[in-house]
Each structure stands twice: as structure tokens, then as C-alpha cells.
């Protein structure tokens, strides 16, 4: 699942802490479930002449996927059908990170350890338990972004979401960060899938970028 692969990247192997700020983590995770539902043919972005306005989220197939996280997200989209992708992300992100982290712990890829802040407040940490999947994901990203291999849908989804939070160079280090970011942009905008899926990925990518930027502005204004 895309959201699982993102979280494996986002958490430090040893400390079990996220390496990006919470806003970027949570909004890109919400974007990941939308992208995956699109790739599975469950949701999409409406075009002209459909039952909701063009550019809004539409449910293509309401039947459950059998995956609890995706099906919970599918219900949210169904309830919010006709909304803009950016307006649905806020609802999707609630509780999502905790659910996916627990799945990764249950599958043995992460392990939960509890620490106390100032000796009082219990705070979970999620260090790596089995590095196999994370190593594979990072290797695939490098093959596509650095070595020029052709991507599959799941890798394109990851690249688009990482680009949305400006995190590509962090997880795919190279001697030329600009070239890596340019390659990521080309892939996200390229002809790698059918029009419907490609459109959904690009709309979700834009929505995640916008939501993160808006949250940053709100935080700055609040701090001022």
C-alpha cells in the first residue's frame, strides 16, 4: 500500500521518529490513499458531463476493496463526493497515520517503543524491525529517478507524493538535486498511465502541495 511505503520512508530507522514535519506526513498520507483508490478504479476526478462538477472527486466503484484503511477512505470520499480533492484531504488524514503505523508494526516491519517526554507523557516511537521493504522502496525510487528505469504506477504515485512535499532529494540523494527534482516532475506529469489515473494523481499532488502550503501560512499567522 502506498501509505505504508511512505511511512516507512518517513520514519528514521533507529530513533523511530518522523523525519518530516507532521503536516507534510499527514497530508501526503491522505493523498496516498486517494491515489491508491484511483489506481484501483474506485475513485477519480470528474471530467465534463459527469454527475459532479469537473475537477471534483467522484466515486467510480463503491464496492469495498477488502482493505480496512482503503475502505474507510472510500467511505469518506463517498460521503464527500463532489468535493475538491484538497477539501477531502483534511477528513482523510484524521487517525490515518496511527492506523498505518500499527499495520506496519503488526506486519513486523516497524516496532513500537514507548518513551516518556520529560518523564511524564508517553510518546510512541517506531524504529525499523525488518528493513527489507524499505530497502526495496528506496532502491526502486533510485532506479527510476537516478538510473532512468521505467516506473510502474506505485512508484509514480510515491514520486508524485514526495514531490508534493518537496521531499524527493531527502529520500533519493544525488549529486544533482535539481536534476532529480526535474526527473520527478517529468515522471509525475508523464504518459505513464491512462488519462483518468494520471489526472487523479496530478490533482491529488496539487492538493497536497496546496494543503501543506496553507497549513504553513496559518501556522505563521498564528505565531505572529
UniProtKB/TrEMBL annotation:
Where located? Golgi apparatus membrane
Query: Is Membrane there in the keyword field?
Result: yes
Q: Which GO terms describe its biological process?
A: Golgi organization; Golgi to plasma membrane protein transport; Golgi vesicle budding; retrograde vesicle-mediated transport, Golgi to endoplasmic reticulum
- Could you cite one Gene Ontology molecular function of this protein? phosphatidylinositol-4-phosphate binding
Question: What protein name applies here?
Answer: Golgi phosphoprotein 3 GPP34
Superkingdom in the source lineage: Bacteria
Q: How does it sit in the membrane?
A: Peripheral membrane protein
Query: Which PANTHER family does the UniProt entry name for this protein?
Result: GOLGI PHOSPHOPROTEIN 3 HOMOLOG SAURON, TRANS-GOLGI PROTEIN GMX33
GO cellular component: a single term: cytosol
Organism this protein belongs to: Haloactinopolyspora alba
First-listed, main subcellular location of the protein, grouped into a coarse class: Golgi
Keywords for this entry?
Golgi apparatus, Lipid-binding, Membrane
Amino acid at each position: 500500500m502506498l501509505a505504508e511505503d511512505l511511512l516507512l520512508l518517513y520514519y528514521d530507522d533507529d530513533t523511530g521518529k518522523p523525519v518530516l514535519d507532521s503536516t507534510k506526513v499527514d497530508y501526503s498520507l491522505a493523498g496516498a490513499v486517494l491515489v491508491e483508490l484511483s489506481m484501483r478504479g474506485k475513485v477519480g476526478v470528474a471530467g465534463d458531463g459527469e454527475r459532479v462538477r469537473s475537477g471534483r472527486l467522484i466515486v467510480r466503484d463503491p464496492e469495498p476493496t477488502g482493505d480496512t484503511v482503503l475502505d474507510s477512505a472510500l467511505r469518506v470520499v463517498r460521503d464527500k463526493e463532489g468535493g475538491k480533492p484538497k477539501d477531502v484531504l483534511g477528513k482523510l488524514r484524521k487517525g490515518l497515520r496511527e492506523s498505518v503505523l500499527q499495520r506496519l508494526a503488526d506486519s513486523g516491519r516497524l516496532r513500537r517503543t514507548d518513551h516518556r517526554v520529560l518523564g511524564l507523557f508517553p510518546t510512541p516511537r517506531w524504529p525499523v524491525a525488518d528493513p527489507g521493504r524499505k530497502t526495496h522502496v528506496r532502491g526502486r525510487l533510485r532506479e527510476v529517478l537516478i538510473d532512468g528505469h521505467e516506473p510502474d504506477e506505485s512508484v509514480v504515485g510515491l514520486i508524485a507524493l514526495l514531490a508534493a512535499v518537496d521531499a524527493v532529494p531527502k529520500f533519493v540523494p544525488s549529486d544533482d538535486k535539481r536534476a532529480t527534482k526535474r526527473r520527478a516532475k517529468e515522471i509525475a506529469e508523464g504518459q505513464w498511465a491512462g488519462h483518468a489515473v494520471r489526472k487523479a494523481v496530478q490533482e491529488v499532488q496539487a492538493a497536497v502541495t496546496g494543503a501543506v502550503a496553507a497549513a504553513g501560512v496559518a501556522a505563521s499567522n498564528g505565531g505572529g
